[in-house]
Amino acid sequence: MTSLDSSPGAIPEGAGAAAKQIPPAAVARLTIYLRALTTLLSEGVDRVSSESLAEASGVSSSTLRKDLSYVGSYGTRGVGYEVQYLNRHIAAALGLTHDWKVAIVGAGNLGKALARYGGFESRGFDIVAIFDADQMVVGSEVGWLRVSDAADLEPVLQRTGANMVVLALPAAVAQEVCDRVVAAGVRSILSFAPVMLQVPPGVNLRKVDMATELQILAYHAQRAQDPEDAD
Predict the structure, then answer these.
(1) Which residues are annotated as a binding site for NAD(+)?
(2) Cα–Cα distance list, 83 to 9, 19, 73 (Å)
(3) What is the pLDDT of residue 97?
(4) In whole angstroms, what is the distance from residue 13 CA to residue 171 CA?
(5) What does the alpha-carbon distance between residue 14 and residue 2 come to, in Å, rounded to a whole number?
(6) Could you tell me which CATH class the domain 15-93 is placed in?
(7) How do residues 51-104 score in pLDDT, each as one tens digit?
(8) What is the dihedral of CA 65, 87, 46, 5, to 10 degrees?
(9) Residues annotated as binding site?
(10) Using the 8-state DSSP alphabet, how is residue 43 labeled?
(11) What is 100-212's CATH topology?
(12) What pTM was computed for the model?
């Protein structure tokens, strides 16, 4: 693939120093731009236009340019974005230049699948521990990790330096474990538990509800199949 340079220009050095608060929807799109840029880098592309990057990301050029303005990207027409620099710039804005050490609580099918997923490391996330309360599971190996006893949650979190936790747990125990994680000093939690969790101010909690996502997908699929309903 050849580089394209038909519109907005390179990001000025130091542009991200005073980045604005980024709206949640724009944050989500920035992760998509980062993935597209990583692909371009692997293909040896040095520069890319806003039109090409927007097309690869499934958004409009105007949306792309507005999103990049949140991280201090303004540029000059006719030059194109420098792919490597823009990739680093977005990664820095998303906090991906820090060391993120992730612990997974729950070594069921989902927890094991997450622990074995190879894409986390390439995106800056190091899976450092996995826990379970089932003594038949404790001590078994998941990839290169050995399952730790959930009773030892706090000391293992401290020893590994985990600063993010993924909860892959049943609803009945999720809040109790979440409270322990917070008490251990972790301030970033991703929950797959099918229940609303309560956390104190200063703790970032993201909930992934696959059933809800499927319901939303079903809604859009139904509208696509029935044009009269869409109107």
Answers:
(1) 106-111
(2) 11, 19, 12
(3) 73
(4) 47
(5) 27
(6) mainly alpha
(7) 899 999 999 989 998 999 888 865 556 678 888 889 888 988 888 777 799 999
(8) 0
(9) 106-111
(10) T
(11) Rossmann fold (3.40.50)
(12) 0.70
